[in-house]
Specification:
Chain A: Its EC number is 6.1.1.14. Chain A: Belongs to the class-II aminoacyl-tRNA synthetase family. Chain A: Keywords: Aminoacyl-tRNA synthetase, ATP-binding, Cytoplasm, Ligase, Nucleotide-binding, Protein biosynthesis. The complex is a heterodimer of chains A (about 300) and B (about 775). Chain A has 8 helices and 9 strands. In chain A, strand 6 and strand 7 form a beta hairpin. Chain A has 2 domains: about 200 residues, BirA Bifunctional Protein, domain 2; about 90 residues, Class II aaRS and biotin synthetases, domain 2 (Methane Monooxygenase Hydroxylase, Chain G, domain 1), CATH 1.20.58. In chain A, helix 6 runs parallel beside helix 8. With about 775 residues, chain B is an alpha+beta fold. Chain B folds into 6 domains: about 150 residues, no CATH class; about 45 residues, no CATH class; about 120 residues, no CATH class; about 160 residues, Hypothetical protein af1432; about 80 residues, no CATH class; about 150 residues, Isoleucyl-tRNA Synthetase, Domain 1, CATH 1.10.730. In chain B, a hairpin with an 8-residue loop joins strand 11 and strand 12. In chain B, helix 20 crosses helix 21, helix 23 crosses helix 27 and helix 24 packs antiparallel against helix 26. The longest helix of chain B has about 45 residues. Chain B is extended. Classes of the chains: A alpha+beta (about 300), B alpha+beta (about 775). At the A-B interface, strand 4, strand 6 and strand 7 of A face helix 8 of B.
Chain lengths: ~300, ~775
């Protein structure tokens, strides 16, 4: 498994992906500064997938899935983890080859490994979005999600964006040959102060697992959910013309509230206070927000062109 | 005679869609070619993950020239008529000929359509095929508008004959057809040109692509078998998995791995399901131990290290998956040994259907019903009830949460771990059976009781909330449940009056609603003053009896309707839900009639598949006792057999004729001829013979029906055929002699009555 070309740490996997996609012409963005469940929620993907403007971006997105917390004990599961996200619009004809190039860049040579594109349609009920594509398998392990966006927020994507999502911990563990995520070298193992993933995150996983499952104040969260929902609706309904006569619709601030509502819903779900039937209703409420934001973004884009 | 080769080269096509896509490509293209006037000798379609291919051999080079003569107006017709004719034919006047017709001189036009070259037709047909391809789900990509299952990269379209091959000129949304393709994504990525199908298939093979999915399947089956054989193992056959895997690779390279010792104690179904669902591995069984000990994964590439890296990676992923499975198994076993109370409790919060309560409610109903059915199928009621209570608990187990397809299978393991008897544990596994029409039907009495109760609860439940199957929509698989009931009854020869059981099921369900309704409302009435007011007002609006009853409850309460005691609240709630239960019980009869006729329809479908005509089943269903499915089937089978004989066919005619004459006379005379036929008024020998025959046949039929010996009943009535035929041949029923006529009509009644003992022959066709 070891070769000179192989990265030696978690961060090196990330850095190589950053360099690779920068070299392919993507804007290397920074993570969105809000709690999200996946890299797709970053407005650089959700909103930019809409409208006619060309776009190419790549970024790391810290993601939170409260229900996946295992107190740092499970070798593969985390409530906070990193996704690497690439989005290119319109999707270029050679996107599969570009993607395979990124695997080579992190030391996975498709001539030695078994790389396969296995059907997996993507759908986000909370974003009202879906696309067709694959999960990419490397030696039987899912290393990425590859999607051609067809709809976001209920709008047809024209042109279509190609979206790649790498689960960074899992991918890096495979590349580095590590069995437990907490044992994975975070920085160079030969550095003066070598740090493992566990050095960085073991304690936080424990703390957040407890808070997510047992401690989060559910009444407060229900209130926050309602507040975010109301604020989102208010921003969307606000007069696009401000006091100085400027037309400035506010799709992005509204979308922040939609993201917030979505994350609060995930927290409530982890606390086990949302029943099966209510669950659908909550998802529908978040979708309605996301759809409103998408509508406003699209009209704003149309007005700009 | 040219040959045609088409290749549609795309990004990876989902494996499950490939077989259908091959058929569709072949059908759409060949139908299009034939529709345009071409003929061909043979056609074949192929697929790999990245290509969809069609070869058509012996195609005609051109469509034929066609010549059509069309008749126009008379030569002396007004100019306008002639001009219209010229417009419609596209000809000029000098191209017409005038000939004599019945009505005089008439213009005739000959329209010739020149044949078209095959390449024009192919280009048109392929363009339309690509644009209208019926993918289950298709997509757009980039900035284009074309839809395909995944981005389409190139089109190869060649017509070839002895003189060589030519590309069919065709461009679909910027993709121009050519004569090049590519091999394996990694092993042979370069483009190459081809001249025809044989050349194409051969070059693909050199480029590490096996074109034919069946050949890939065979290669996988054989190589996997050899790998297993070398270790003294055998591959667990799985055709669906084989087809799927063959749709995921162009160059299959099976690799064998060993399952780590620490996972070998997992149930074989768990190993197999986990490996199949998550990894698409084949399972390898060691016949000496009977355990699953190894796996075969199929890579899509040959590597310099002979797959060592690939196998190591797969092994790692498997270990992670099986660690999860082992964790679930250990936790579940602990819960099973503790009695599974936590699972039973948990099912209270799992909704079965929002109008039919929780899974726990459902289990409660099935257990009560299984108890009632048990004596009818020779099962011990306690055991049947216990089996029903345990049968679905595994739905709460971690393993079934992970692998829903293991429901039942795990239930059996857990029931055994809980110390239950085999009969009870088996019910957990098999009470869902039969699912498909070819599934085995359970035979063990406890199992039959639970399986029937499960299906009947489903049917009566969804019928009560008016969620019946319509057309092709049957989201709750009620047709399957009905067929299950039918097969459980018929194949076990289980006798019961289905109507009674359906009533029982409804009663249990209504009772359950009553109980939970009363409980909830009692709580609510105590807490919520407005709800109490509204409920009492609603009850007051009902009929007199109710009001009287209500006054009795509330009397103690001095002119106020305020509810203060729990006892009072309970009584109001009981009055309220008693009303509901009463109405629902009233409605049960109609509901069950409707459900029974649905079951009869399914029985017809089932018996028709056994070669019994639907009209024969109708004739039998018109008899009393039609809710005893075994009885219906046996009657229908015997009647079906008789009606295939000459006697049977003619007898039907005779019985129908008797029935018709009788019905007309009864209509005309306004009386029913049903009694008093007397041989002494018989005038002819044939008439007397018929009396004699009836004297023998009537008791024989009666006896046979009483003992349910339907073939004997058929034989007995078949003996009436000759006398009835002879009677109608020689005797005039409606004579002027009123005594003789009445006697004969009464005789016809005896014939009709004899027939009625067996079936309603008026419903038999022919």
């Amino acid at each position: 498994m070891t070769s000179p070309n192989r990265p030696r740490s978690f961060q090196e996997v990330i850095l190589r992906l950053q360099s690779y996609w920068a070299a392919q012409g993507c804007a290397i963005l920074q993570p969105y500064d809000m709690e999200v469940g996946a890299g797709t929620f970053h407005p650089a993907t959700t909103l930019r997938a809409l409208g006619g403007r060309a776009w190419a971006a790549a970024y790391v997105q810290p993601s939170r899935r409260p229900t996946d917390g295992r107190y740092g004990e499970n070798p593969n599961r985390l409530q906070h983890y990193y996704q690497y996200q690439v989005i290119i619009k319109p999707s270029p004809p050679g996107l599969q080859d570009l993607y395979l190039g990124s695997l080579r860049a992190i030391g996975l040579d498709p001539m030695v490994h078994d790389v396969r594109f296995v059907e997996d349609d993507w759908e986000s009920p909370t974003l009202g979005a879906w696309g067709l594509g694959w999960e990419v398998w490397c030696d039987g392990m899912e290393v990425s999600q590859f999607t051609y966006f067809q709809q976001v927020g209920g709008h047809d994507c024209r042109p279509v964006s190609g979206e790649l999502t790498y689960g960074l911990e899992r991918l890096a563990m495979y590349v580095l040959g590590v069995e437990h995520v907490m044992d994975m070298p975070f920085n160079d193992p030969d550095a003066a102060i070598p740090l493992t993933y566990g050095d960085v995150f073991r304690q936080t996983e424990r703390e957040y697992s407890r808070w997510n499952f047992d401690q989060a104040d559910t009444q407060m969260l229900f209130d926050h959910f309602k507040d975010a929902e109301a604020e989102c609706a208010r921003i969307l309904a606000a007069d696009p013309v401000d006091g100085a006569g400027r037309t400035i619709p506010m799709a992005h601030p509204a979308y922040d509230q939609a993201i917030k509502a979505s994350h609060i819903f995930n927290l409530l779900d982890a606390r086990g206070v949302i029943s099966v039937t209510e669950r659908q209703a909550y998802i529908g409420r978040v979708r309605a927000l996301a759809k409103g934001c998408a509508d406003l973004f699209v009209t704003t884009e149309e007005a700009r062109t | 005679m040219p040959d045609l080769l088409i290749e549609l080269f795309s990004e990876e096509i989902p494996a499950r869609m490939q077989a259908r896509a091959r058929q569709d490509l072949k059908r759409l293209v060949t139908d299009g070619l034939v529709g345009a006037g071409l003929t061909y000798a043979s056609a074949g379609a192929f697929s790999t993950p990245r290509r969809l291919v069609l070869t058509v051999e012996g195609l005609t080079a051109n469509s034929p020239t066609t010549r059509e003569e069309r008749k126009g107006p008379r030569t002396d017709a007004p100019d306008a008529a002639l001009e219209g004719f010229l417009r419609s034919t596209g000809l000029t006047r000098d191209q017409l000929t005038a000939r004599d017709d019945k009505k005089g001189q008439v213009w005739f036009a000959v329209i010739e359509r020149a044949g078209r070259p095959a390449s024009d037709i192919v280009a048109e047909v392929l363009d339309s095929t690509i644009r209208n391809f019926p993918w289950p789900r298709s997509m757009r990509w980039g900035a284009g508008t074309l839809r395909w299952v995944r981005p389409l990269h190139s089109i190869l379209c060649l017509l070839s004959d002895e003189a060589g091959s030519t590309v069919v000129p065709l461009t679909v949304e910027g993709i121009a057809a050519g004569n090049t393709t590519r091999g394996h994504r990694f092993l042979s990525p370069d483009a190459f040109t081809v001249t025809g199908f044989d050349d194409y298939a051969a070059k693909l093979r050199r480029a590490h692509v096996i074109l034919d999915s069946h050949e890939r399947e065979d290669a996988i089956r054989q190589a996997a078998g050899n790998l297993a054989f070398a270790r003294g193992w055998e591959i667990v056959a799985d055709d669906a998995l084989l087809a799927e895997v063959a749709g995921l690779v162009e160059w299959p390279v099976p690799l064998m791995g060993v399952i780590e010792q620490r996972f070998l104690d997992l149930p074989p179904e768990v190993l197999q399901t986990s490996m199949k669902e998550h990894q698409k591995f084949f399972s390898a069984r060691n016949p000496k131990t009977g355990r699953i000990e190894g796996f075969v994964t199929v890579a899509n590439i040959e590597t310099p290290d002979d797959g060592a890296t690939i196998l190591a990676g797969n092994q790692r992923v498997l270990a992670a998956r099986l660690s999860d499975a082992a964790f679930f198994w250990q936790n579940d076993l602990r819960e099973a040994k503790a009695g599974m109370q936590a699972w039973a409790e948990g099912l209270k919060s799992v909704t079965f259907h929002n109008k039919l309560g929780s899974q726990a409610d459902r289990i409660e109903r099935i257990a009560a019903l299984a108890r009632e059915i048990a004596p009818l199928v020779g099962a011990d009621p306690d055991q049947a009830e216990q089996a029903a209570r345990l049968a679905k608990l595994d739905l709460r187990s971690a393993m079934v949460g992970e692998f829903p397809e293991l429901q039942g299978t795990m239930g059996r393991y857990y029931a055994l771990a809980a110390g239950e008897a085999d009969a009870v544990a088996d019910a957990a596994r098999d009470h869902y059976s039969p699912l498909g029409p070819s599934d085995d039907v359970p035979t063990a009495p406890v199992l039959v009781a639970v399986a029937l109760a499960d299906k009947i609860d489903t049917l009566t439940g969804f019928w009560a909330i008016d969620e019946k199957p319509t057309g092709s929509k049957d989201p709750f698989a009620l047709r399957r449940a009905a067929l299950g009931v039918i097969r459980l009854a018929l194949e076990n020869n289980t006798r019961f009056t289905l109507r009674d059981i359906l009533f029982e099921a409804r009663g249990i369900s209504i009772g359950q609603e009553y109980k939970s309704g009363v409980k909830e409302l009692t709580q609510k009435l105590l807490k919520d003053y407005e709800a109490a007011e509204a409920t009492i007002a609603e009850l007051n609006a009902l009929d007199e009896g109710e009001v009287w009853h209500l006054n009795q409850i509330l009397e103690k309460q001095e002119n106020t309707t305020r509810i203060v005691s729990i006892e009072q609240a309970r009584q109001v709630a009981e009055a309220y839900f008693g009303r509901f239960s009463f109405v629902e019980n009233q409605a049960s009869r109609l509901l069950i009639d409707d459900l029974l006729s649905f079951l009869h329809d399914r029985l017809k479908v089932y018996l028709r598949d056994q070669g019994i005509r639907h009209d024969i089943i109708d004739a039998v269903l018109a008899q009393p006792g039609n809710d005893d499915l075994v009885l219906v089937a046996r009657r229908a089978t015997a009647l079906n057999a008789m009606l295939q004989t000459d006697d049977g066919k003619n007898l039907t005619q005779g019985l129908k004729r008797a029935g018709n004459i009788l019905a007309q006379a009864e209509e005309k005379d306004g009386v029913e001829y049903s009694f008093g036929a007397d041989a002494k008024f018989a005038e002819t020998e044939q008439e007397r013979a018929l009396f004699a025959a009836l004297e023998t046949a009537e008791p024989a039929i009666k006896q046979a029906i009483a003992t349910e010996d339907f073939p004997a009943a058929m034989t007995a009535i078949a003996h009436l055929r000759a006398p009835i035929d002879a009677f109608f041949d020689t005797v005039q029923v409606n004579t002027d002699h009123q005594i003789v006529r009445r006697n004969r009509l009464n005789l016809l009644h005896r014939i009709r009555a004899a027939g009625r003992q067996i079936a309603d022959f008026t419903k038999v066709e022919g």
